[in-house]
DNA sequence: CCTACGTTTAACACATCGGTTAATTAACAG
DNA sequence: CTGTTAATTAACCGATGTGTTAAACGTAGG
């Protein structure tokens, strides 16, 4: 039912194991076995988590010999940021300066379009 | 399994109906019937969506007579923003543009003062 | 060719999700 | 008290998600 892109991305991020995998990939590419090492779950389970992340566009994968390396692709996070923009005016009640700046940037961008 | 707060928030956002409800609430508080109106699904289904949103902290609810009004609570979005912060260096390719905007804004502020 | 290694696929179990209709709760109105 | 309206809860159903183990696949290397 959740066939739209944003739903797929959010659903992929709604699992702590998958978020941990992303955190690990932020330190550099890794193979499936390397990614599985910190977890107590089986390798097939990790493999499917990677599939979910890949379908969400959060990782890209390359194969070299029998190893499959995953690397982080944060573009979907930008989509989330875009979605959240419309709500930004609600959660900047206690604006620090950076938030204020970001908000104004938004306005400038809109004015420029 | 997804008992941590961030997972609950992401899971709540992973449904297009729930995101549409949030979008509606961005225009102002609404009752359950009002929120259900644009959708073809039953009222109980909406009621449970609201429960999910409430448990994720994305809405708060108040009761007045037999009406239950929902209002947007965007604080969880801040948590998402915080989680995304560690990945910002990956996807903020346009940091230069951001800097440019920041400088321009600072100038504007100075001019306005 | 055969074996070992890294990974994926298959088949299954079980829980959760998102929907339904019917019944129930809660508050107002006569 | 009775009936109406707003919303939730209960009971159920099919689809999906996450885990397992066992089998299969693809490549490297003796």
Give the CATH class of the largest domain in chain A. Mainly Alpha
Biggest sheet overview of chain A? 3 strands, antiparallel
User: What Rg of chain A, in angstroms, do the CA atoms define?
Assistant: 18 Å
β content of chain A, as a range? 5-15%
Secondary-structure element pattern of chain A, one letter each? HHEHHEEHH
Which structural class do the helices and strands of chain A define?
A: alpha+beta
Protein name (chains A, B): Metalloregulator ArsR/SmtB family transcription factor
Organism (chains A, B): Actinocorallia longicatena
Pfam families (chains A, B): HTH_20 (PF12840)
Notes on the structure:
The structure is a homodimer of 113-residue chains. Chain A has a 3-stranded antiparallel β-sheet with strand order 1-3-2. The first copy, chain A, has 2 domains: 69 residues, Arc Repressor Mutant, subunit A; 39 residues. Chain A has 113 residues and is of the alpha+beta class. In chain A, helix 1 packs antiparallel against helix 4. In chain A, a hairpin with a 2-residue loop joins strand 2 and strand 3. At the A-B interface, helix 1, helix 2, helix 5 and helix 6 of A face helix 1, helix 2, helix 5 and helix 7 of B. Chains A, B: It holds the Pfam family HTH_20.
Please write out the topology.
Two copies of one chain form a homodimer.
Chain A: H1 5-13, H2 16-25, E1 30-31, H3 32-36, H4 43-55, E2 59-64, E3 67-72, H5 75-85, H6 97-112
Antiparallel strand pairs in A: 1-3, 2-3
Helix pairs in contact in A: 1-4
The first copy, chain A, binds a DNA duplex (30 and 30 nucleotides) through helix 4.
């Amino acid at each position: 039912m959740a066939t739209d892109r944003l739903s797929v991305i959010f659903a992929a991020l709604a699992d702590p194991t998958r978020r941990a995998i992303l955190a690990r990939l932020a330190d550099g590419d890794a193979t499936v076995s390397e990614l599985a090492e910190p977890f107590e779950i089986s390798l097939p389970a990790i493999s499917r988590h990677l599939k979910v992340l890949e379908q969400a566009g959060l990782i890209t994968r390359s194969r070299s010999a029998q190893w499959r390396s995953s690397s982080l692709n944060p573009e979907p996070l930008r989509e989330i940021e875009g979605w959240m923009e419309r709500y930004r005016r609600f959660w900047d009640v206690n604006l620090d300066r950076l938030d204020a700046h970001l908000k104004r940037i938004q306005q400038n961008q809109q004015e420029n379009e």
